[in-house]
Each structure stands twice: as C-alpha cells, then as structure tokens.
Amino acid sequence: MTSEPPVQRALEGVTVLDFSHLLQGPFATQLLGDMGANIIKIERAGSGDMFRSMTFFAKWVGGSESPNFLAWNRNKRSIALNLKSKKVHDLIMEMAKTADVVVQNFRPGVFDRLGYGYEDFKAVNPRIIYCSGSGYGEEGPYVDRPGQDMLIQGLAGLIDNTGRGDQAPVPAGAGLADQIGAMNMVYGILGALYWREKTGKGQKIEVNLLAGMLAHLAQEYVAVLNLGQDLKRPNSGIGHPGMQAPFGIYETKDGYVSIAMSPFKTLYEVLEAPELAVYDDLATLYDKRDEVWEKVNAETRKYGSAELLERMLAVDIWCAQVNDIRTAAEDPQVRHMNMLTTYEHPRGGTVRVVAPAIRMSETQPVIERPAPLIGEHGREILAEFGMAPDDIDSLVADGDMTIET
C-alpha cells in the first residue's frame, strides 16, 4: 500500500505573531496562513478581535459568530493575552526570539507605548520582520485620524469617481482599501522574507491604506494630472468617469449586463440598431456618452440577459452578466474553479467561505483550520514555546490570559 506524499506549503516553518484586528491585518495573515505559515493570532484577553463583535444584517452565523471575523481568520491559532501586563510583555518577547514576522495594525504610536514597537522586537531578534499597518502612515497631519476603509475611499478619490453624476457619489460595496492594504502587507512581507534569506537581516515594513488606495488609482491620477482634465461622473450607467460609451452597465428584460470593450459598430449591428452609427467616432462616444447610453440601453432592454450575452459573445464583444452575491456563488465558472468551499466551526457549524484565489503547482494554499475561538489555542501555543503547565495556569488565574472553549 502506497501513501500519498506529505502536502508541501510554501511558507511552512514561518511563524507570524499576529496582533492585527478588523480587516487589513487579518486578511494579510490569513493569506500567509493559507500558504502554510504558522499564524499565532494574539488577541485581547476577554473580548478578542474587534471584528468578533461586528456583523452584517444584525445576524450571527450559528447564532453567535461574526461572518466578518469568520471571513478573515481561518488557518490561525488564537491566544488571548493582556498586552499591558509586564509578565505578558516578557512572554511575547521570549516568543519573538524564534518568530519570523510581527504584524500589527493599531493606530500609530499605540503599540510603541505598550513596548511592542519595531525596536523592541529587533532588540531580541534582529532577523524579525515587523509589518505595521495604518490608515495614513506613521506621521503627518492625519496620523491621529481613524483609518477606516470608506473614509480612505473618499479621501483618495475613488468615491467621487463612482455613481451617477446627478446623484451623490457612491462608495464601493466592499472594503477595497482594507483589502488592498492587506495585499500590500503580504507583498512587503514576502519581499522581506526573500531579502532576509539573502542577507540575514530583518526590517520594518510600513503599509497604509491611503497610499495603497492611491497606488490602485494610478491610471486615474496619471490621466488627470497629465491631460489637464478632471474626471466627471456621467449621468448614466457608463462604468467609468473617464470612459466613452458603450463602456457600462445596461438593463435587459430580466437583469443587467456589463459591456466593456468592442468596436461600436459591432455592438449596434448585434443590437440591430443601425441608427446608432451616427455616434461612431471616439470623440462623439465620449462627448455624448450619456445620450449613447440611453439609446443603447433602450435596445438592450428588448433582450433577456442570456440571449443578449450569447449574441454579443459570438462576435467577441467583451460582456458579462451582472450577478448578485448569491447568483455569483452559483455561476458556472465560479463553480468550475471551486471558489466556494466550507469549513467546520465549533460554534458556527458548516461555514461557506471563499477559497484561496491562487493556484500553485507544488505548494497549493489550503484551508486547514476554521477561524479560532478567543484564546482557543493558548495552552498549546505556550507549551510549544516551552512554558510549564503551572506557569500557564498562573497566567489564566491572574487574568493575563483567557481561553474560550
């Protein structure tokens, strides 16, 4: 009988002390955990990560668990500690001696005042990689402001680019600034790990939401700052303030479709609307884009979504159905990619989640652990770092560590 070879993980052997909360930091460490890193989530004793107390729809998975927390905290073990305790500080610095990465996204200055700044960790482990996430960076006029996702979208210019020009601007329907910040954390951490392999040196990484959002609006900034023209939201369903028709969202008999790139002639021929030929030059399609959108939308409404998509795809018009979340989860391509999966949670039961988004031929990311309970793994984590059972019991008795079961 042959046994399957052990599954390999790209970041196996990398230990991360994860002090982060809410979305930016936890998503970053979840991505590292999917690749096999040993993520030790260090939460506040008692209450844990702030996301545990926040939810959508005023409902809880399994009656008690936050979908927000469950989404960003798989493949981690939790230990819940009182970070203000001298005993806990000494314990964490002992753990840091053999750790590889520290991740935190407290407001600037908070962690340093508690004795957990980069220099504190570097003093016990010069090879440590310390990744700090914030809203606006660690200095400057906004350093003390709350760095929340929607606020960043507005400051960077994304919200003003979104929605119809005759209505209020609209924030994106997802935490894009936080999620981009998470990707930048991972980008920085992986680069630092590679550089450490070559030099033996650790370093500090600073990631902030505003800088990340600006970087992802690069083409909009280059266009406005170099072409001498401001972006202006259209009054129709055109999909971008800098684009000409037909780029946008259109109604059908039973829903909506998005239409991106194609020769305009190809589109009006598919729609059997030759009268639209009068608009067929680039300047007109921009200058009269709202008018063109209205004309095209009147034609798309004559078709069901499936029929219209079939007609457009047959002549290579770039188009797609506009799904809601539930429909997207059942989309044939999403199902083919196995992008929705489940894990078993001790309180939430069978939880449906989004699977890792990348495919690797040798070290495929996987989901091996559900999101943890508060401090669930405290005893086993401390035992791995050599702490005696009696000393662990003392931490619990003193209130410096809590364990939820």
From TrEMBL:
Show the Pfam families listed in the entry. CoA_transf_3
Question: InterPro entries per the record?
Answer: CoA-transferase_III_domain, CoA-Trfase_fam_III, CoA-Trfase_III_dom3_sf, CoA-Trfase_III_dom_1_sf
Keywords for this entry? Transferase
Q: Which Gene3D superfamilies match?
A: Crotonobetainyl-coa:carnitine coa-transferase, domain 1, formyl-coa transferase, domain 3
The entry lists its GO molecular-function terms as: CoA-transferase activity
For the keyword Transferase, the answer is yes
Highest taxon in the source lineage? Bacteria
Query: What PANTHER family does the entry give?
Result: BLL6097 PROTEIN, SUCCINATE--HYDROXYMETHYLGLUTARATE COA-TRANSFERASE
Question: In its UniProt entry, what is this protein called?
Answer: Crotonobetainyl-CoA:carnitine CoA-transferase CaiB
Species of origin: Bauldia litoralis
